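Input sequence (416 aa), recorded before submission:
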Amino acid sequence: MPLTYIDIFAGAGGLSEGFIKNGYLPVAHVEMKKEACLTLKTRTCYYYLKERGRVKDYNRYLKNEISRVELYAMVPEVLLNTVINETMDKSGMPALYERIDGLMRKQNIDSIDVLVGGPPCQAYSLVGRARSENNMEGDPRNYLYELYADMLEKYHPRMFVFENVPGLLTAKGGKYFDDMRESFQKAGYELDYDILNSKEYGVLQNRRRVILIGKKIGEKYYYPRLKKIKHGYSVADLLKDLPSIHPGEKKNVYATNPTEYLEEAGIRVKDDILTWHEARPNLERDRKIYCCVIEAWTEKKARLKYTDLPEDLCTHKNRKSFLDRFKVVASELEYSQTMLAHISKDGHYFIHPDISQARSISVREAARVQSFPDNYYFEGGRTAAFLQIGNAVPPLMAGAIAIALKEQLGVHEDEK
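Predicted structure, token format:
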């Protein structure tokens, strides 16, 4: 029997993707946003059909030859029902437990090995706090860890993985983190943590996240030792096989064969169908700013501040904060800047390096920065897709965590 897990606050499934790819069995995904849940269901279809040698049927959906209804009809309902579209709150937990218990019975699963999840991080984010008038005081998202602790008490997983922004450790002077640790102890778990950077695990992105790992009090598990990856690739290896497009344009045909990095990382595989290589429209004024920013980087390796731009292009009244709001995804660097959920609102912080295109990056390019495979399809419109990508855990980093945990849990199983 494979190791089992439940994913809560699942988003589009970046964390889950790393676990599924490494042999874990998802018992349930719990997520509040409808579009993300559809993405999770579509991904469930991909794995079900792939295991049966029917990827062509999945690709028919990506090519718009069949509808989503027809795709979902190819997969047992119990698997699609593992995706639960619910907003977690105290009053709804009994009903949620009932649904998960039902899924466990139908799948003949009697225990959960790992609970994974990353509650919304705005309340702990330094940027979120800076933009809030009251430093996020009273925001209910500050206390979502209590629901995580409730899940631990209910299902008693052998270990858990809790992902969030480093600001979690310092929010409200560290009080939230102290309360969280105490809450998990009451549920029977002790935790350890580290701040991991996705760039060390094959992701071409500088993304620091705090990863809490919990174990039952008294168990001999330890914080996993993740295998770091050294490589000589650059961000260009993420982009160069994609066709040139202009703002508002989409072109879902690969321009060249995949780069060595894309193949090695499993981001692009044989017979993939390109989707979501679609760029948002950009105002002509913004495109002029993009050209200035690209030129400064290309010619001088300089990151322009907003106040460095020509005066006629500076329309924002705020000239004191967030001055790095326009930034190139530099192709020659080993990694990009941190992908943010704000990309769903505008792409100024993620400008494509090719000045002839003068646009923000496409949905697929953003997904690649996060290390999502090209066959990962995001449901909903462009804005919803960007939001799902920006909020996700990079699958390659999630996979490194899953591998390290699997080795540990496997050894423990044998000893028992």
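Checked by second reader. The chain has 15 helices and seven strands.
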